[in-house]
Design a protein that fits this description.
The chain is mainly α. The chain is 62% helix and 6% strand. It is built from seven helices and two strands, in the order αααααββαα. Strands 1-2 form a two-stranded antiparallel ribbon. The longest helix has 23 residues. The protein is elongated, with a radius of gyration of 20 Å.
């Protein structure tokens, strides 16, 4: 008996168990999102970095831990993101006068400029990502996404 070796042109069929799994579909969405983000928004500034810059702009001088919670990052990931942004001179981390262990976050001028450009491109990408929905479907879809994210985060916190 000989094994049939598929040709390079043959794409295997995706098992129904995968296509029915919400996590699989979310991973596909996220992979595609990362690709278009790098192409259309910024090949260097990541989505989490962008989120941190936006949160710091809205809340300058807040501590790193509270900013992590605001953008749904764990504290170790937040520390890494903040360090990378600081190394690129986009973010300033200053010790809290009352507690030197706490780091307070501020945008630099370069960070404000980078955020301004990336924000315009990110909003343009948002429009492209949602263009398959008509105007009346977008808000309910976004509400459903937020509900799903909130639910999955609660599940993760309880594990």
């Amino acid at each position: 008996m000989t094994d049939q070796i598929p040709t390079a042109e043959t794409t295997p069929e995706i098992p129904a168990a995968l296509t029915a799994a919400p996590g699989y579909q979310v991973r596909r969405l996220y992979q595609a999102y990362l690709a278009v983000w790098a192409r259309d928004v910024d090949p260097v500034l990541t989505g989490p970095q962008f989120a941190v810059l936006q949160a710091v702009e809205a809340n300058p001088g807040r501590d790193q831990r509270s900013m992590a919670a605001a953008v749904s990052l764990d504290t170790s990931t937040m520390a890494d993101v903040a360090r990378r942004l600081e190394n690129r001179c986009l973010l300033a981390r200053r010790p809290d006068a009352a507690d030197g262990r706490r780091k307070l976050l501020y945008l630099t001028d370069a960070g404000s400029e980078a955020l301004r450009g990336a924000r315009d491109r990110a909003r343009a990408l948002d429009k492209v990502l949602l263009e398959s929905f008509d105007e009346t479907e977008r808000a309910p879809f976004m509400a459903t996404l937020q509900e799903l994210a909130d639910h999955w985060e609660r599940l993760a916190e309880n594990s």
